[in-house]
Amino acid sequence: MGRAGRALKETLDTYALSQNKLAVTMGMERTVVYRWVHELVDPTGETIVEIVRGLNQLDPSAAKAFIALYLIPILNEL
Fold first, then answer.
1. Which residue of 3, 31, 35, 63 has the fewest C-beta atoms within 10 A of its own C-beta?
2. By C-alpha distance, which of 2, 16, 4 is closest to 45?
């Protein structure tokens, strides 16, 4: 576990976005976002898309940063 949670935590911190704000934007409980950020649970592939959409609504730059932190390193490993 971890890569998505670490990328999300760094993105939220960098762009001064709260876990609660992202959760509300995504229409879910804050505890779900908390579990991702603290690497207790990994988001599913479908949820990664929803995270990007939620971040994009809050700050498009944050969505791009999350993609860069989470997905680009995976692509570079291929």
1. 31
2. 4
CB 37 within 8 A of CB 52: no
C-alpha–C-alpha distance, residues 18 and 14, integer Å: 11
Instruction: Provide the token pair at 75.
Output: 């692509």
Q: Where are the domains of the chain?
A: 3-77
How buried is residue 59: exposed, middle or buried, by Cβ count under 10 Å (0-12/13-18/19+)?
Answer: middle
pLDDT at 1 over 70: no
Percent of the chain with pLDDT over 70: 99
pTM of the model: 0.90
pLDDT at residue 37, as a whole number: 96
Q: What is the CATH number of domain 3-77?
A: 1.10.260.40
